[in-house]
Description:
The chain is α/β, with parallel strands linked by helices. The chain has one domain: Alpha-Beta Barrel (TIM Barrel). Helix content is 36%, strand content 17%. The protein contains eleven helices and 15 strands. The chain has helices at residues 2-23, 65-72, 86-89, 92-106, 140-143, 169-186, 207-225, 263-278, 294-298, 302-327, 342-346, and strands at 54-56, 77-80, 111-117, 120-121, 157-158, 161-163, 190-194, 230-234, 250-255, 282-288, 332-337, 365-366, 373-377, 381-386, 391-396. The strands form three sheets. The chain has an eight-stranded parallel beta sheet with strand order 1-2-3-7-8-9-10-11. Strands 12-13-14-15 form a four-stranded antiparallel beta sheet, with helices on one face. Helix 6 runs parallel beside helix 7 and helix 8 crosses helix 10 (302-327). The radius of gyration is 22 Å and the shape is globular.
Amino acid sequence: MKKTFLYLLLISVSAFQAQEKESGDRSLVISDGSIFKSKDLFPKFSWETTPLYFMFGDKERVLHPEEVEFIAKRTAFLCIEKSHGYGTLGAAELGAKHEVAAFKDKKPDMKILFYFNAALAWPYTSYSKDFTKENIDASENLRNFLLKNPKTGKLAEKHTAFLFDVLNPEFRDWWVETVAKGVRESGSDGAFIDQMHGNVNLRKDKKNDIEIAMGEMMAGLKKALGDDKILLANNACDDNAKFVYPVSDAIMFENYSAVHYNKEKLLSDWDNMLRNAKAGKISVFRLGVEGHNRRFLRSMTQEEKYKVMPKISQEKLEYALACFLIGAQPYSYFMYSWGWGLADGALVDYPGLQKPLGKPKGAYKRIKPEGWEFTREFEHASVWVDTESRQAKITWI
């Protein structure tokens, strides 16, 4: 039995090495031995250190020059969040435009995405500013784009935002034109689209229709953006986004708290990162700081949060990073934060993320067929993780 296992392992390693030699670029070898087919619109990718993706916003202001420099040194791929710069410039697309110019000045090949939501009507852009309780009644057209709560008859809300009606074809047309305009006017390299569910909880009997409509809307956006722009869809590996997945260039796995990255979910994410790589899609693997949910964060003042969370996140980093590295593929990016605000991790210096990593030597290994211990070797790191006990060890070579 052991001889058979060793024989199969040697065959796997030999196939991986043969593909590396044939491709001439080991950084693009997928863990199954096939080759990632990159596109000119993608950011530059390297295994030199952990590949990082940033996503942040500050509703009150834009970045200071030293903050631009800090982030630009660590990544070539990021998204400007939904309300960034609103307080200073009056509209989120202007906040994005300001940061696009600032980052491109530092790093011209940086790829920067414009944020828009497919389900929640955030009022932070000039295009969506009337989706507020004060202004919505003045625009019958925009009001028709929104869902009503079936129990109350009033406009439905979530997180203080109204909810879009994706089954309205006029809304879908407006949405596609609006997002494409935001990308164009901000000078961004594409769009990050949040919320693939289409507010199905309010109309569960129309689940299939909503999923199809979401796919049509995202396909329309990709066409409007063009082949030179990136379309990143949040959680588009989920079953409810099966019509979104084919038209997306990149997928985020949004695991913002420990409950969202249990051992089964992590294994599924690793499988989907392989699926994405084989399909030539970017993966963004986002983990929140383990053990700290939104309720915990809301219980702290801002001053407490800024003082406590950077230290906690440093202590929790090794496990989160190991979870990423086990399943990482070419064009997989790691995001680590405890929220989406600028002060929620984007400006924390994590020395562990700057250590030399090197290319993977092969696929991950599962120690026992039914167990939850995994290992993987990189040129400069040996990774072990137990996703059941939530322990990890990265040995830097």
